[in-house]
Amino acid sequence: MRHPQAHAVPPRAVHRRIFRRSDPVEANARLTGATAALLLVLLAAEGATIPFLGPLLTAHVVIGMILVPPLFVKIASTGYRFVRYYRGDPAYRRKGPPPTLLRLLGPFVVVLSVVVVASGIALLFLGRRWRPDLMFVHKASFILWFGAMTIHVLGHLVETARLAPRDWYGRARRDVSGAGARQWLLVGSLVAGVLLAVAVVGHVGSYRSTRDGARRQAAAATALLVQPSTTQFTEKDVRPPEVSFTTPCTSLSKPGKRVSQASKSCR
């Protein structure tokens, strides 16, 4: 007769199975943290191209396109947490909201991120007529985004550093179910970004040629405005012309001298 505990599951394994079965809050936090870490790397690379946009314009566009899908994964994961919390989900309620400043700043970060990316893409595709306005929107939104994003990153930096690697190494990876799906989602967003960059990079050449042509025209117009005139004017050039005309009664052949004609008819 077999002992009743011969095939019993060790308590640690039971606990691990129970824990892996359901923890959506931790799963969402891990996805958000890993995506945030990826975006930090891409944004740092993107920022490094800004002081050298002339020679590194293509790299600037390529990196910008690669970060678009991970950006929307991050917006989706934080948006999901937002909806679940305000709809009263008990698990998300227990976790609680972010600090008040970060909670108020979050919508501005999302909107400004979308505006910066959308205006940058529009610069490549819309005509020359719209480019001055789009460039203004792109630069102004980037300045506002940089300030808001700095506060956002500093506020979540410790949490991101804690959560980002948990799905990528042994024991912590096995604690919460769905680690493989989260990894594939992150890798898939990167692949989608690379494909998007390949599709868009061909427009950089036309944008660059149009931009350089506009700069040359502006420089030529400025040179014409500031160039001093070399034309020499004399008194004869500015003297008003002498007018000679004939009427039925008089003829002016020389200035100051009248010759009478048909005097009878004029009397």
Describe the protein's architecture and organization.
The protein has 267 residues and is mostly helical. The chain has one domain (13-222). It is 72% helix and 3% strand. It is built from twelve helices and two strands. The chain has a two-stranded antiparallel ribbon. A hairpin with a 2-residue loop joins β1 and β2. α3 packs antiparallel against α9 and α4 crosses α9. The protein is elongated, with a radius of gyration of 37 Å. The termini are far apart. Mean pLDDT is 80; it is low at 13-19, 250-254 and 256-267.
Identify the notable features of this structure and list them briefly:
single chain, 267 residues, mainly alpha, two-stranded antiparallel sheet, 12 helices, elongated, disordered C terminus
Distance between the termini: 158 Å
Task: Give the percentage of residues in beta strands.
Answer: under 5%
- The spatial strand order of the largest sheet comes to 1-2
List SSEs in N-to-C order.
Answer: HHHHHHHHHHHEEH
The counted number of beta strands is 2
- Tell me, rounded to a whole number, the average pLDDT: 80
What about the largest sheet? 2 strands, antiparallel
Q: What is this entry, summarized?
A:
The protein is mostly helical and 267 residues long. The chain contains twelve helices and two strands; from the N terminus they run αααααααααααββα. The termini are far apart.
What is the strand and helix layout of this fold?
Layout: H1 11-21, H2 24-49, H3 57-66, H4 68-86, H5 90-95, H6 100-125, H7 131-163, H8 170-175, H9 179-200, H10 203-226, H11 235-238, E1 250-254, E2 257-260, H12 263-266
Antiparallel strand pairs: 1-2
Helix pairs in contact: 2-3, 2-4, 2-7, 2-9, 3-9, 4-9, 6-7
